[in-house]
Amino acid sequence: MILVTGGLGSIGSHTARALLDLGESVVVTAHRATRPPEFLAGEVVIEPLDTTDEAAFLDIGTRHEITGVVHLAAGRYDLPDPVEYLRAESLALLNALKAAREWGVRRFSVASSIGVYAGVDEVPWREDVPLPVVAPHQIHAFKKSAELFTALTGDGAGFETVSLRIGTIWGPLGLPDSPFFALPRLLSAAVLGEDPDLTPPRPPAYAEDATDLCYVKDCGRAIALLMLTERLNHRIYNVSTGRLVRYSEVVAAINAVVPGANITLPEGRNPERPPDNHLDTTRLREDTGFRPEYDVERAVPDYVDWLRRHDR
């Protein structure tokens, strides 16, 4: 049985679904929302959990035989005090690692981020490239530390560890107003018939901006494969499609699917944006056989259909 922390969030719920589809039983933890999306209803065990509560975390192992952990739970990203943010995230991770050690799990995966590559000039970003010591944001700083904490604990306790350097993810249950990229806002505004307002603090969008965009269903399946593949040759994996997608491609797909959307973006590229780059996914493809199933033309109609039936 696999435990997925943050298992009712966007990436977590789709990871749980993918694990179920591969024949695994799943327990998910939930802190705020405890009602599962319909694609998980009746198929997963839900454990309400504040991941900073060590005793409550460890108690899950008294009710379930946990053989693997996918740690995706995350605290509030917008906490202005980095000390409070780092304390909450570190406590949650350390509790998850302690539980994994006491339960004797086989494999532990932790969510890292494409953001750990900030400042790396190599194209594309490969898992073996040296990372800068400094980080431009508290999330990136923690994700780098989380990889180190996880590998160190796993080596000492005897379980395998996987750091998931996750790309730019969008799709059902994601934030409609992502603080990191504008595409979810553009799509949700089109479905709701609203003005796609991108005034600050919302991130801007230009036609030639590009990102390594990955639909959440593909992301969940990739993580599930990394948990269940019998033999992995590495402990760090980039998780994404492995290609740059221009914002103009996504907007064209939205306009084609949503009548009257007529979204237009400023020409060119955001002059304040760092150089666009993408993740090398060779390790993921070679070790698990993963191939993305959702290109923009398939992802946008699927996401639009979901948003027409749900809040996000």
Give a brief description.
The chain has about 300 residues and is an alpha/beta fold.
Number of helices: 9
Helix and strand composition category? alpha/beta
Oligomeric description of these chains: single chain
| Beta-strand content estimate | 5-15%
Helix-strand pattern:
EHEEHEHEHEEHEEHEEHHH
Shape: globular
Total beta strands: 11
Task: Quote the average pLDDT.
Answer: 96
- CA(first)-CA(last) distance: 29 Å
What does this structure look like?
Helices cover 38% and strands 14% of the residues. The chain has 312 residues and is an alpha/beta fold. The chain has a 7-stranded parallel sheet with strand order 3-2-1-4-5-6-10, with helices on both faces. Strands 7-9 form a two-stranded parallel sheet. The longest helix has 22 residues, at 82-103. The chain is globular. It starts with a strand and ends with a helix.
Give keywords.
312 residues; 7-stranded parallel sheet; alpha/beta; two-stranded parallel ribbon; 9 helices
Set down the secondary structure blueprint.
Blueprint: E1 2-5, H1 10-21, E2 26-30, E3 45-48, H2 54-63, E4 68-71, H3 82-103, E5 107-111, H4 138-157, E6 160-166, E7 168-170, H5 183-192, E8 210-211, E9 213-215, H6 216-228, E10 236-239, E11 245-246, H7 247-257, H8 282-288, H9 296-309
Parallel strand pairs: 1-2, 1-4, 2-3, 4-5, 5-6, 6-10, 7-9
Antiparallel strand pairs: 8-11
